[in-house]
Amino acid sequence: TINLCLHKVVRQLQLEAGLNLKGFSQAAAALKHFCLQNAQHDLLLTGKLCSFSVVTFSKPLFMNNDYSKAS
């Protein structure tokens, strides 16, 4: 049983070693880019369910749509 546990740990470490891990700042930049690219479709930012929807909400979460200042 100990041998089996060690084998599982070694296998997990081998899998993790093979992953292409990104640094935190690179991952944060990729996430920010994704959010900025998809902001026009975000219900919380626009107050609209989708671009062709007639249903809107009285107040979007963010009234200021200048996302370039967000950090």
UniProtKB/TrEMBL annotation:
SUPFAM superfamilies: Transducin (heterotrimeric G protein), gamma chain
G protein gamma domain mapped to chain residues: 6-61
Entry-linked InterPro entries: G-protein_gamma-like_dom, GGL_sf
Protein origin, superkingdom: Eukaryota
Biological-process GO terms, alphabetical: G protein-coupled receptor signaling pathway
Protein name, UniProt field: G protein gamma domain-containing protein
Species whose genome carries this gene: Sus scrofa (Pig)
Organism ancestry: Eukaryota, Metazoa, Chordata, Craniata, Vertebrata
